[in-house]
Amino acid sequence: SFRSAVRPARSRGGGSGLARHANQAVSTATDIEKAYFAGLFDGEGCLHMRWVGNCLDTTVQVQMTTPEPLIALHQLYGGTLRCARRKDGHKPVWEWYGRRKVIDEFLRELEPYLRIKRNKVEAILEARRLIGGKKQDGMQRYGFGRPIPADELAQRRAAYRKYLEASANVS
User: Fold this and answer.
1) Which of 94, 101, 117, 131 is nearest to 45 (CA)?
2) Phi, psi (deg, nearest 5) at residue 143
3) What backbone phi and psi angles, to 5 degrees, belong to 137?
4) What pLDDT, in 10s, does the model give residues 120-163?
């Protein structure tokens, strides 16, 4: 059963309640798990990219009423897991989502197995490459009063257009 794939949580916090955060989890997913999660993500997942000022904000999420696969995603990749109880008598909806470093690891590991969302993932990974890791690479960090150079802003806009084109081609 799938429950055997659920590993002990690597959360460094969380506390009580239904929302748990583990942004520093390190994936040890097997190839079979990566293929399974890629199929799950192709069918039930969402990718979002939007402009916030001159910056691109990206998120990835999966929602469903069965919690076990999302618990496993949370344990392997970090991010946030929460349960929204519904008042209309329907099953609660579980949601796993990630931003920033969670997206980088999750999408890079699953990209080879994706079928439907592959072009969107490629566009988001390109955008993440442009906006992520600047401090570690010795490059200037932008924002907070430091303008983004025109050439880099043009690259970000091109990555966003690629994402929009890929989104239009996904049914």
Assistant:
1) 117
2) 95, 180
3) -85, 5
4) 999 899 888 877 644 544 445 566 667 788 888 888 888 899 99
Q: How crowded is residue 5: how many other Cβ atoms within 10 Å of its Cβ?
A: 18
Q: Answer whether 110's CB lies under 8 Å from 118's CB.
A: no
Residue 34: strand, helix, or coil: helix
The single residue listed with the structure tokens 């399974």 is: 36
- Output the DSSP codes for 138-168: TPPPPBTTBPPPHHHHHHHHHHHHHHHHHHH
Q: Tokens in use for 66?
A: 């069965």
Q: Please, which residues bridge with residue 20 across strands?
A: 81
Contacts of 39 (CB under 8 A, 6+ apart): 113
Residue given tokens 């303008």 in the structure block: 147
Structure tokens at 7: 């590993």
Residue tagged 């949370």 (tokens): 74
**Which residues have CB under 8 Å from 11's CB, separation 6+?**
20, 21, 22, 25, 74, 75
Output the pTM of the full model: 0.74
